[in-house]
Amino acid sequence: MSRRTLALPSWLPVDAYILALIGTVVLAALLPARGTAADVAGGASTGAVALLFFLYGARLSTAEALDGLKHWRLHLTVLACTFLIFPLLGLASGGLVPYVLTPELQAGFLFLCLVPSTIQSSIAFTSIARGNVPAAICAGSFSSLAGILLTPLLAALLLGSTGGGFSADSLLKIVLQLLVPFLAGQFLRRWVGGFLARRKKVLGLVDRGSILLVVYTAFSEGMVAGIWHQVTLARLGGLLAAEAVLLAVMLALTWYGARRLGFGREDRIAIQFAGSKKSLAAGLPMASVLFGAHASLAVLPLMLFHQMQLMVCAVIAKRRSRDPEPESVRNREGAGSGPVPDPAVTVTS
Fold first, then answer.
1. Cα gap 160→94, rounded to integer Å
2. By C-alpha distance, which of 308, 325, 326 is closest to 251?
């Protein structure tokens, strides 16, 4: 007798992992981590991100990583999208006050436009869509590091914040949590690369489980801070509509703008995914420094935008993965230049 397996309808524009992300948010809303549990979850989340970057370093050939550094035009394009075009659109949202957004929500909306791009999800979606993964790694990393300086400066300039900037300890944490594990993975790749390549499915589960932990920790912090009790449903709907327009504009601008600039398909994919998203993991600690006691409401637009961008970009990446395989990918795989990061990797903050 044949057994029937449970599968999502083919017309449903989400996959099981997106549903898992939604379920994680619901879990954080119903059972947020508090007290000691929050400390444990936060420590585990920090370790999970470090593990992810170690795995990225161990999977990616050094030659491909260095090749990504050569795409300076691509990196400048992503930085311009992140720290120039996004802030301009954020300033334009001032016209929505007081009809759609309250002044506090508009400040949070503008803040999300100043946050650096993601790293993990940019890599994941670029890999799924068969884009330029090494360039996505470099572009996301450059954006994250630049955001350490540019986000507080832009916030002070555009929001009138006097919350100060980042300390040397903040920079040290980023280096220790992201750069050091990645370099360790690169260093140990010759010994562990083959082992990891033979266990892609297991590592895919590790990747995705780690990101679910990161999402749960971030949303638990927001729930404990009580951000959902400070906004009416009407204002929340207006905020979601404004963010949907913002995301649609940036997705279209990064894709068609990159084409006008002469970038090829693989580079356009990296630009679209790295240049259209914002990092929740970077934005939450930045908001706590810049906004102090008002940080909980300031990060609400970022938290909503984060989930929206993951769901929309997951659909886009899945559809682009069905495109005819680019000749450059066939040539690279045929030449045996080393394993490309597993498409079943993370979608995260």
1. 14
2. 308
pLDDT tens, residue by residue, 154-179: 887 888 644 444 445 555 665 677 67
Rounded Cα distance between 279 and 144, Å, is: 8
**Residue 321 burial by CB count (10 A; 0-12/13-18/19+): exposed, middle or buried?**
middle
Rg (CA), the chain: 20
Contact between 152 and 166 under an 8 Å Cβ cutoff? The reply is yes
Which two three-digit tokens encode residue 158? 């555009």
Backbone dihedral angles phi then psi of residue 142, each to the nearest 5 degrees: -60, -45
How far apart CA 135 and CA 76 sit, in angstroms, is: 12
Handedness of CA 33, 29, 213, 227 (dihedral sign): negative
262 CB burial (10 A radius; 0-12, 13-18, 19+): exposed
Q: Which amino acid is at 188?
A: L
For tokens 């961008």, what's the residue?
A: 309
pTM above 0.85, yes or no: no
- Position 152 scores a pLDDT of 79
> What is residue 344's predicted lDDT score, i.e. its pLDDT?
39
Q: What is the pLDDT of residue 4?
A: 43
Name residues of the chain where pLDDT drops below 50. Answer: 1-13, 161-167, 329, 332-348
Which DSSP string do the residues of 273-289 spell out, in sequence order? HHHS---HHHHHHHHHH
